[in-house]
Each structure stands twice: as structure tokens, then as C-alpha cells.
Amino acid sequence: GADGKIVAINDEGRQEQSGREEVVTAGLIDLQVNGFNGVDFNSENINAVDLDRALAAILKTGVTTCLPTLITASKNRLQQRLHALDKAVSESLLGSLMIPGYHLEGPFLNPEPGYAGCHPVEDMIPPSINLIKELEQELERPILYLTLAPELEHARELIFWAAGEHKIVGAGHSALTSKDLSPVVEAGLNISTHLGNAVPHTLPKFDNPIMCQLSEDRMMACFIADGAHIPSAVLKSFIRAKGVERSILVTDAVAPAACMPGHYSLAGIPIELYDDGVVRKRSSPRDSPFLAGSSLCLDQAVANIIKWGIADFRSALRMACANPLAILGPALRAHGLDIRLGEVHWSQDYRPLSVDLGPWRWQLPDV
């Protein structure tokens, strides 16, 4: 606490005095993870062993619940990747504890330059309810979060349907402006996916996708707090505009997260993690402003928010646990799903010391 006393903080954000030598919280929730610890969740060849290796590393960062995220691909590849991932989750040791469902980011995105990001433009298609229905066939876990460009033709119909199916529906890789916003929010759009990213570097000064979504109080917003996707001063302004109560921290992590710099893959796309922690397509120049996911871990995002003077620990935790739980909870209940938040013990410099999740416990060896 501010007075130097040790406190325990639960997932509602209340503080209670404890005699512990560390801060105790509920586990963190990451709504957007493309891969981790050398494992690409978009691989058609993912298996239970690989998935457990990735999830064990994620658990060490204080995250006890996550949504593996698949990016734009052809229908056949999306089907192969979702079924491979779903099979790996079902057969893994940690999957049933940590993964209630999936995040599909695309293929209904804006293909115009600056919006596409590292997603393959050739696989982007108009919004289709039938495609989502087909992709979910025979999956043991549902698609819980759908990211799309709401300005596309037929997007409103898909948003309305997805909201009726109790999915989180987010705007991302989108040229959404104020005139398009209210109708799609009324249809069920309720979150901004990595707000501030996947937009061109030159935009109209006021009526642009960032400003209009910041102003919409009916939407929550996800932010990547790594300092590369959004400069810390800009992120501070974004969170002040959106409000801590409507802000969510995500990683958008890809396979090199928690790994050494080097060459990796994202959905078949060669990517590289540089020694400054930034991930780019391998074909891009080292100083390219266009990123390919991140190497961020969610515990580091929490620490960054505090270090940059954006929020205190309680508020940073709210953005990494209570707020994602608030938007994920209705989807979980509607699908008859449950999650274990577990318990994380933190050091005074906001590093996880141990994580308890049901029968699983991870602890730093020197603690």
C-alpha cells in the first residue's frame, strides 16, 4: 500500500490487512495470446505437449486464464488450426484449467494499407455468420471473442448474431469512424481490440478509429502496454480518456514471448524477435514501425503501468484481472463454462513469486 504496509488484494479490488511478506491477488486474465514460449497457437501441428509447455510459461507470469488467439487465414486453414488447437487443449494437462475458449481475430478485417497489420490480406473476406458456425462445428470449446472491422458490409448482422450467441465482439484492424460507431455498438459491439494499433500512421485529426472508440463509454478497450505498440505517454492519455474501469491489459503475445531473440513463426509467417523486445516480420527492416504481435508478458504489463505512472497496483490489477473477467464472465456463464482464477503471490517489485491454480503450483526456486 501507499504507507508501505503489506496488503492482499482480491479480484474485486478490495484491500485487507495481512501478515504476509508479499501481495496476494487473483490470477490474471489475458484475452489475446497468439503464442508463447516458442509455441505458435496458430500452428496446424500444435499438440498437447507443446501447449502445456506454453501454458506453464504463461502461468509463471501470473496468468491463470487466457484465450488463445488465431489470426486471419483461409477457411480450410482456420478449420485445421482450430481443430488442432482444440484437440491439444483437450489432451493437455493445463488446457482444461486455463483455456475456456478461443479468440478469433479475423478474417473479417479491413484490408486497406495500415489496417491489415501482419494479417494476410489475401485471406480477408466479408463478414459471414455461416463461417463462424462452420468453424465452431465439433469444437469442444467455443469461440468466445471475435475481432472484426465493424465498418465492413454485413458486419452489423454478424455483430448482432455473435452478441446473441454471448460472444465478446471487438473492433480491430478497422477504419471505424463516429458515424458508423453507434449502430454497431447498439448491435452488440462491446470492446476495442488492441486500441491504438493496426491503424495507418496518417489519420484524420479528430474523426478516426482511435478517437471515436475512446469516447464510446459502452465499449471497453484493450491495450498492449509494452512501450512499443503505444508510447507510454500516449497510453497514459488513452487510459485517462477511457477510464481505468473500461480499460483492459492484453499481451497480443506471439511465439517468441518468454524466449531469446531469434527467428520464429506466426501462422506460417516468418517473424523475428529483436534484442529490444520488438517482434516484426522477418522481411521487414529492423526499424519498421509495423509490428507482428509482441513479446510482452502480462505481469510486465502490470509493472509497466505502475512504472510509467499511469496507475497504482490496485488499478493495474483491475485492468489485468477484474475488467477482463467482467466482459468474459457473461460469455462463460452463457456457455456453461467456469474458470479458476487461482492465486498469485507478488513481490514488492510486482514480480510473481508463486502461482496456485487448483492442483498446480509454481514457485520461484529461491523463494
Brief summary of the model shown:
By secondary structure, this protein is an alpha/beta fold. The chain has helices spanning 48-59, 75-91, 95-98, 129-136, 155-164, 178-187, 209-214, 232-242, 298-307, 313-334, and strands at residues 7-9, 15-17, 23-25, 28-33, 35-36, 39-40, 63-71, 102-105, 143-148, 168-171, 191-192, 220-224, 247-250, 262-266, 269-273, 279-281, 343-346, 352-357, 360-363. The strands form 5 sheets. It has an 8-stranded parallel sheet with strand order 4-7-8-9-10-11-12-13.
Describe the structure.
30% of the residues lie in helices and 22% in strands. Helix 1 (48-59) crosses helix 2 (75-91), helix 2 (75-91) packs parallel to helix 4 and helix 9 runs antiparallel to helix 10. By secondary structure, it is α/β, with parallel strands linked by helices. Strand 14 and strand 15 form a beta hairpin. It is built from 10 helices and 19 strands. The model is unreliable at 1-20 (pLDDT under 50). The longest helix is centred in the last third of the chain and has 22 residues, at 313-334. The strands form 5 sheets. An 8-stranded parallel β-sheet has the order 4-7-8-9-10-11-12-13. It has a 4-stranded antiparallel β-sheet with strand order 3-17-18-19, with no helix packed on it.
